[in-house]
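User: I'm putting together notes for a lab meeting next week and I want to include a structural view of one of the chains we've been expressing. I don't have a solved structure, so I'd like a prediction I can at least talk through. The sequence is below, exactly as it appears in our construct file.
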Amino acid sequence: MKKKVNKNLTSFADHLDKQYGKKGTAKRDAYEQGFEAFKLGVLIQEMREQQNLTQEQLATKCGTTKSYISRIENNASDIRLSTLMRIIQKGLGGHLNLSVTY
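Assistant: Thanks for the context. Below is the predicted structure for the 102-residue chain, given as structure tokens.
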């Protein structure tokens, strides 16, 4: 049995190019930066929930406020590296590893 190929499909990369422009353009760079912030918020929320911590409990452990944790998890706040490290290390007991790609 032959598989039917749908020629109307668009790859995700092609969709991003069409919607936000090619990599390196201002609009695409803004999208990519926003997506990274979104992923960071989701990561913190998932780690917090895995440890059965409320936002209030996490905030208390790392010396910030519940509203700040909420803003980070909901992608509504930029986060300083020192604060991120404190949330990961003191609040969640983890270690932060960074990498840079070109």
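A couple of points you could mention at the meeting. The chain has five helices and no strands. The chain has one domain: 12-91.

User: Perfect, that's what I needed.
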